[in-house]
Write a structure and sequence with these properties.
The chain is 62% helix and 10% strand. By secondary structure, it is α/β, with parallel strands linked by helices. The strands form two sheets. A six-stranded mixed beta sheet has the order 6-7-8-3-9-10, sandwiched between helices. A four-stranded antiparallel beta sheet has the order 2-1-4-5, covered by helices on one side.
């Protein structure tokens, strides 16, 4: 029992899901056993016809044997259909057990430092799932019966059994040779194909840049590199596999003829009957069939095995979050304690020994030159990345270990690159959940996006297209801000919230920030625009990943610029902007 528990713990998550489907596999195995037993009806029929019916000339016996054969073959066809249905249910069961888990692991992998937003793991999962529900897996169920058919041949006559054993051993050696010759190029081709698909996805996401700057020529050259490598490797594997398959096909046909010749010799020597001669040939064909099928479907088998390993590794590297106690809604006190963050492979830290605190109802402005680590700090605050050392706490709880679904209800985040989903405006604001209409509209009003949304063709039900392609950059940013504010989060983190906004949008953003402070929300704003910092209470200046200054806004700005220059950060009215533009 202890060994069983140890094996369960050591089994991969994908292996555990397959183990949960073991009942289906057992049923499919039982049906396979019945199918292979019923296959014996054909050689037995031939044996009886040649040895008894022809010698006795009994028509009733022939009719009864034929009827029994037809019934057996009909039963075999029905059982084969049921087995196929069972294996299809395995795929459905496996998808229900793991598809959501694979998708969540893909999201976490894409957010990791070395990850990328690729759909390859889901393709791998589907490839493996389709393999175990397709005809290729039938070979695994039929292969164990090959020795049994050889044993039946040996029962007919030992010499025939020995011949069948030798023939099967030869084909098995050829199958092993096929594995040895095609495994490396198939794996190389699969990896190159995965890189090519990932590059294709990235190219489509940046299609406007490619078209606008005439990069299509260079893009196709780069795109063709991995594709040509994949095609070359697959061609090598296919050539080698075709050569082995042709050899196996030659040996199989030759072996069946040789079996017929050996049996004929034994018939002439009056050792066996003509019925045994033909029955042994049929049984040999059945015994050798799984080996030939395995070689024919070896590419799918190797691809499925590689896909299994990649999916298992993905799930292993991104384990599910352990169950945790649901914490009460935070008030919004944010505390950074010696936060340091390293990127693997880079010696100098991106952020180093950050210590600061933001109280509920306060707004913190984070400024600094490009590459100072401002966006990285935003990701750490919302728990996308975990600090290499130190902790970030929200109301005393470590944000890196807070259960993501529960933590997300209390946090709003507007990233620099705003990604909206191909759904309605309302669904995007509600974070793709079943949103409350009142909360959706309230978030849009707070973000200053309500009037803009009402001006869309179908209002809140307008479909925005993939990535918000049907909206302008400013509209996407306003809707992204409304999404961040949905559910009245206690902590709101805004990374360059005014980068795509016009003057009217900046005014609406300023009103939104003031409203959030009145509501007692904690706000962290990353911005290069001085006007955005008018509503903040504290400013944190990052430089080379370290805090250069931190304190009340006026004190920090007074140190950064002469007192006479400080008022220049005040919002500029439209009239003043017009006067300054005149010569």
């Amino acid at each position: 029992m202890t060994d069983g528990i140890g094996k369960a713990r050591n089994r991969s998550e994908l292996g555990q899901a397959l183990h949960a489907c073991s009942g289906y596999f057992v049923a499919a195995g039982l049906f396979s056993a019945a199918i292979n037993i019923l296959y014996l009806a054909s050689p037995l029929y031939m044996l009886q016809v040649y040895d008894r019916v022809l010698s006795s000339g009994s028509v009733p016996t022939l009719l009864m044997l034929t009827l029994a054969l037809v019934i057996a073959l009909l039963a075999m066809a029905m059982l084969d259909n049921i087995r196929a249905r069972i294996l299809i249910r395995v795929g459905i069961r496996l998808d229900r057990l793991l598809a959501r888990r694979v998708m969540s692991a893909m999201v976490r992998e894409a957010n990791s430092l070395q990850g990328s937003a690729r759909g390859q793991p889901l393709r791998d999962f589907d490839s493996f799932r389709q393999f175990i529900t397709g005809s290729g897996v039938y070979t695994l169920f039929d292969a164990p019966w090959a020795p049994i058919f050889i044993l039946v041949i040996a029962l007919l006559h030992p010499v025939l059994g020995l011949c069948a054993l030798v023939f099967a051993a030869v084909l098995l050696c050829l199958a092993v040779l096929n594995e040895y010759r095609v495994r490396a190029p198939l794996l190389e081709g699969g990896e190159a194909a995965a890189r090519n698909y990932a590059f294709t996805e990235a190219s489509l996401r940046n299609s406007h840049v490619i078209e606008g700057m005439g990069m299509i020529g260079g893009l196709l050259d780069r795109w063709s590199r991995d594709r040509n490598r994949s095609l070359a490797a697959q061609a090598i594997a296919s050539d080698r596999g075709a050569a082995v398959s042709s050899t196996i096909r030659f040996f199989r046909i030759t072996m069946q003829s040789l079996m017929l010749g050996v049996a004929a010799f034994l018939v002439m020597d009056r050792v066996v009957t003509p019925g045994i001669m033909f029955a042994s040939v049929i049984l040999l064909a059945r015994a050798l069939m799984p080996i030939e099928q395995a070689v024919g479907s070896w590419r799918q088998l190797v691809s499925a095995r590689a896909a299994y390993r990649r999916v298992a590794l993905l799930l292993q590297n991104n384990p599910p979050a352990p169950a945790s106690v649901v914490l009460p809604p935070p008030k919004g006190r944010l505390l950074a304690q010696a936060v340091t963050f390293h990127v693997p492979g880079i010696l100098s830290p991106v952020l180093q020994d950050l210590n600061f605190a933001v109280e509920p109802g306060e707004a913190l402005g984070v400024i600094g030159p490009s590459g100072a680590g401002k966006s990285t700090l935003a990701r750490l605050i919302v728990g996308i990345h975990a600090p290499s050392r130190g902790t970030l706490r929200l109301d005393g709880a470590n944000v890196a270990t807070w259960e993501r679904g529960d933590f997300g209800r209390h946090v709003g985040y507007l990233p620099q690159e705003i990604e909206l989903f191909a759904d309605s405006v309302a669904a995007n604001i509600a974070r793709l959940g079943i949103g409350n209409d009142k909360d959706i509209v309230e978030a849009a009003i707070t973000a200053g996006a309500h009037e803009i949304i009402l001006g869309l063709p179908r209002g809140y039900e307008t479909q925005i297209g993939e990535g918000g392609v049907n909206l302008s950059g400013g509209h996407r940013q306003r809707i992204g801000l409304a999404r961040a504010l949905y559910g009245n989060p206690s902590l709101v983190v805004l990374d360059e919230p005014s980068s795509n906004l016009d003057l009217e949008g900046e005014i609406a953003l300023g009103n939104c920030l003031a409203r959030l402070k009145e509501m007692g929300r904690t706000v962290v704003i990353i911005s290069h625009r001085p006007a955005t910092l008018n509503t903040v209470d504290k400013i944190l200046l990052l430089q080379n990943g370290a805090i250069r200054m931190f304190g009340p806004r006026r004190e920090v700005l007074a140190k950064l610029a002469p007192p006479a220059a400080v008022p220049s950060i005040a919002p500029v009215s439209r009239e003043a902007a017009g006067r300054s533009a005149r010569p």
